[in-house]
Amino acid sequence: MKRNNTDGLFTKPSILVQHDPLFAFTYDLCYVPDLKTISQDKPEDLVILVLWNNTLTGGRVMKEINELNMPDDIRYSQDHEWARVEGDKVRIGLDDYAQDQLGDIVFVELPQVGDTFEQGKEFATVESVKAVCECYLPMGGEIIAVNTALEQSPELINQSPYGDGWMVEVNAKDLSETEALMTNTACLEKLKGAE
Fold first, then answer.
1. Which of 14, 54, 129, 174 is the most exposed place for a label (fewest CB within 10 A)?
2. Distance of alpha carbon 56 from alpha carbon 41, whole angstroms
3. Per residue in 103-133, pLDDT tens?
4. Could you say which residues of the chain have pLDDT below 70?
5. How many helices (H) and strands (E) does the chain have?
6. Domain coordinates in residue numbering, the chain
7. 67-194 has CATH 3.50.40.10 classification
8. Measured distance CA(23)–CA(54) in Å, rounded
């Protein structure tokens, strides 16, 4: 999953610069339409930023690493998509870390049944109040089902990322591709190392 920022650039005070492991870069810019440049010497500007952050997350506090739900019957990609093998098919979605980092998801664009993708290729787009993100298929194959419920209720990804919020099912081309994916333990260790 990769993020594209929205319009409306303003400078973020250095005191609030933080590392964002999901997108693997340290940022000192925020993107908000119609707001003035924030400066370190104006406390009222910091209040605006805090209120803006609360709006982006729907008032939710982001989870600590040890609070994430990462089931052990699932494999995880470096980009935070998950894959659950069920016989010769694979169910795929965004993991708990990704949905938590994105905040409230408002739109999902999914592929068509019958589309074919190689492992690691872009297959979907997710839009949240924070960003627009491309999603990459953790295992290659033919799309055999899409979760059409996400068209009307994209928030299901936030509410139940491994249940009602699944995105697609794939007829896997090569089940050995799971070997390139992480276990829940390895994924959590990677996230802890990025803190």
1. 14
2. 24
3. 999 999 999 999 999 999 999 999 998 889 9
4. 1-61, 194-195
5. 5, 14
6. 2-56, 67-194
7. no
8. 20
